[in-house]
UniProtKB/TrEMBL annotation:
A Pfam family reported for this protein in Swiss-Prot or TrEMBL: HAD_RAM2_N
GO biological process, one term: cutin biosynthetic process
Keyword tags: Acyltransferase, Lipid biosynthesis, Lipid metabolism, Membrane, Phospholipid biosynthesis, Phospholipid metabolism, Signal, Transferase, Transmembrane, Transmembrane helix
Protein name: Phospholipid/glycerol acyltransferase domain-containing protein
Keyword rRNA processing among record annotations: no
One term of GO molecular function: glycerol-3-phosphate 2-O-acyltransferase activity
Record lineage: Eukaryota, Viridiplantae, Streptophyta, Embryophyta, Tracheophyta
Membrane-spanning parts: 283-308, 314-334
Phospholipid/glycerol acyltransferase domain sequence ranges: 350-451
Stretch forming the signal peptide: 1-20
Length: 546
């Protein structure tokens, strides 16, 4: 009986709330902006002139004194206050694309003309319906944990955050769905309480409806939360809708549009409340309506271009493949050169120790050097293994067996290894495994970095077999390869150094070459944080014997 009731409730809401009310509001808006434009223009100009002459009701957030606020309670909104943008459409698009699928994202994009003529409440209801209807709760939890924090941090208002950080207690009231902001606010901004719009769900799925059929009203929720007690500080926007909310606080400050446009409102990376080391998702840009439209227009060409680039790298010789890849928009910057072969161990190959940005790291290294390499990896999808233009060997995570395998491969030729064990998108290097240092004396560090504008070529929770495709779908993907000097013998295990000392030294050397920060995070830390597992790709061909 629950499911039919949900369907009936949804149909009733669509026909009454959406069609009737929205058409009425649209007619009013068209009437005011079209037929009576000339009459209202003079009235609006005079009213705006009066507003300019009147002093603002509340001072700017830049006027707030940050001293001795450790025992004060602060309340504010997320949208337009903590975030510099007033539109929450990009974050709903991230939920639709990353948590749902491309068809849900396209439907949300098609709704933009309708959203333009609706008021704020109806816009929010439509975006919630499209983004959440039929969405699994676990998918939303994954997006909230691994995707949204990156875009929230990049759009964080530094001025509002300084006031927030100065307060001892922080509570956020917002009309957007609580599940979209609560994880970020509590983990990154140390907010104690988050009160937002609650979504209706049946079992493990969202219905796309609002629980209780009412959006959160900030002033009412503030009264319910604090009772007769007034919070010391309130932050809001200059919109009249926030005046009632701010009137319930002892001190009130507003975030003006003029303050938003200043460079001081942009939060630099080195001042993030918490370092952003890991994040997931395919989209590398903030999906505003215009940017999302450009992405969908690019997709058909991008898919064909990725297939062309892939076959060029697989089938053609090195020089021709580099020429055609560059002609198609791929940027490859090579610094340094391949060291000469060793005279001490003429039958043993060189071990290239690379930073790990995508699965294509060894491929671009091999193509840039115009020489055949073998790459070892801890986990590789079957599809990536098939389409790889170079030899790839999967390791087993058994230290003795993996050591024997790498020794055998080095005796056959040059070997490329990524001791981080997994990719990292941000300017950080994960902890290096020390196994490689025990196997070779001829070690060449290689600093590698990538630049993308539309899609990330890595994922922790998605289909890894599509990683190379997504990277090559970018209009102009870029690879930076810096081949450092060969490690002196006295700095290797043959010179008396321990394997851990060698690994840490090379990590610092590569970090300095790229301007990256070295960390002690491991592959396990990344996957537990982003995907809730240890990131091991199991071989489905292996079956247990009865």
């Amino acid at each position: 009986m629950v499911f039919p009731m949900v369907i009936l409730k949804l149909v009733d809401w669509i026909f009454y709330q959406l069609l009737a009310n929205s058409c009425y509001r649209a007619a009013k808006k068209m009437r005011s902006y079209g037929f009576f434009f000339s009459k209202n223009a003079s009235l609006k100009s005079s009213s705006s002139l009066q507003q300019q002459q009147q002093p603002p009701m509340y001072p700017s957030v830049t006027k707030c004194d940050l001293e001795n606020r450790g025992f004060d309670t602060l309340v504010c909104d997320m949208n337009g206050v903590l975030l510099r943008s007033h539109s929450f459409f990009p974050y709903f698009m991230l939920v639709a694309f990353e948590g749902g699928n491309i068809f849900r994202a396209f439907l949300l994009l098609l709704s933009c003309p309708v959203l333009w003529v609706l008021d704020y409440e109806m816009k929010l209801r439509i975006m919630i319906l499209i983004s959440f209807c039929g969405l699994k709760k676990k998918n939303m939890e994954s997006v909230s944990r691994a995707v949204l924090p990156k875009f929230y941090l990049e759009n964080l208002n530094a001025q509002a955050y300084d006031v927030l950080a100065s307060a001892g207690s922080r509570v956020v009231f917002t009309s957007v769905p609580r599940v979209m902001v609560e994880g970020f606010l509590k983990e990154y901004l140390r907010v104690e309480g988050v009160v937002g719009t609650e979504l209706h769900a049946v079992g493990d799925y969202f219905t796309g409806l609002i629980s209780g059929s009412v959006l959160l009203q900030k002033h009412r929720s503030l009264n319910d939360y604090f009772g007769d007690t007034k919070p010391q500080i309130g932050l809001g926007t200059s919109s009249p809708h926030d005046h009632l909310f701010l009137s319930l606080c002892k001190e009130a400050y507003v975030v003006n549009k003029e303050d938003m446009n200043k460079s001081s409102s942009i939060m630099p990376r080195n001042k993030y409340p918490k370092p952003l080391v890991f994040h997931d998702g395919r989209l590398a840009f903030l999906p505003t309506p215009f940017a999302t439209l450009c992405m969908f227009m690019w997709l058909p060409l991008g898919i064909l271009l990725a297939i062309f680039r892939l076959f060029v790298g697989i089938l053609l010789p090195y020089k021709i493949s580099i020429f055609l890849a560059t002609w198609s928009g791929v940027v490859i910057r090579l610094k340094g050169q391949c060291p000469p072969s060793s005279t001490l161990h003429p039958r043993k190959g060189v071990l290239f120790v690379c930073t790990h940005r995508t699965l294509l790291d060894p491929v671009f290294l091999s193509t840039s050097l115009a020489k055949s390499l073998t790459a070892v990896t801890y986990s590789l999808s079957k599809m990536s293994e098939i389409i790889a233009p170079i030899r790839t060997v999967r390791l087993t995570r058994d230290r003795n067996r993996d050591g024997e395998t790498m020794q055998r491969l080095l005796s056959e030729g040059d070997l490329a290894v990524c001791p981080e064990g997994t990719t990292c998108r941000e300017p950080y290097l994960l902890r290096f495994s020390s196994l490689f240092a025990e196997l070779a004396d001829e070690i060449v560090p290689v600093a590698m970095n990538t630049r993308v504008s539309m899609f990330y070529g890595t994922t922790a929770s998605g289909l890894k077999c599509l990683d190379p495709i997504f990277f090559l779908m970018n209009p102009s993907p870029s690879y930076y390869i810096h081949i450092l000097e060969k490690m002196p013998r006295e700095l290797t295990c043959a010179g008396g150094k321990s394997s851990h000392e060698v690994a840490n030294y090379i990590q610092r050397q590569l970090g300095d070459a790229l301007g990256f920060e070295c960390t002690v995070f491991t592959r396990r830390d990344k996957y537990l944080m982003l995907a809730g597992n240890e990131g091991i790709v199991h071989d489905s061909t292996k079956r247990k014997k009865p």
